[in-house]
Every structure is written in structure tokens, then in C-alpha cells.
Design brief:
Layout (H helix, E strand, L loop, with lengths): L1 H12 L4 H11 L8 H13 L3 E5 L7 E5 L1 H8 L1
Antiparallel strand pairs: 1-2
Helix pairs in contact: 1-3, 2-3
Amino acid sequence: MSTKFALLGLLNIKKMSAYDLEKFAKETIGYFWNESYSNIHRTLKILSDEKLIKKLPEKGSRNKNIFEITRHGQQALSQ
């Protein structure tokens, strides 16, 4: 459950890819929360399925997706 809300909180700051989320988390909240890249990726899929985030393809890259929090995700985060 903490991974879900940690990712929503980070995406509430700015849009990021899974790699960017892992890197940003290590630089900012790494002393309090640490998660593997595979679990971050798995949780992003769950959040997307629940419509809490949406995936945006990055311009110029076919393999990199940028994620952003949805209004529904912001509501879930604030609760």
C-alpha cells in the first residue's frame, strides 16, 4: 500500500517515467522509502488499471512512457 501512495505522491509533483520515479525517489525519499524497479513498474500498471494515473508516450521515444496522476488519483492521494 505504501508503494501505491508513494508513487502517487511523486507523480503529484511532476510527470515521470518508471526510471525517473526510481531515481527521483532515491534522491528525495530514499531514506524513508525504498522500492525495487520491478515493483515500481508493477505498481504503475496497477495504478494505471485503476485509472489513478495515465500513461503518456514520450515524444521521440517508442519505449519510454511518462506517467501522470489523474484527478481520480489526486482524490485518492488526498484521502
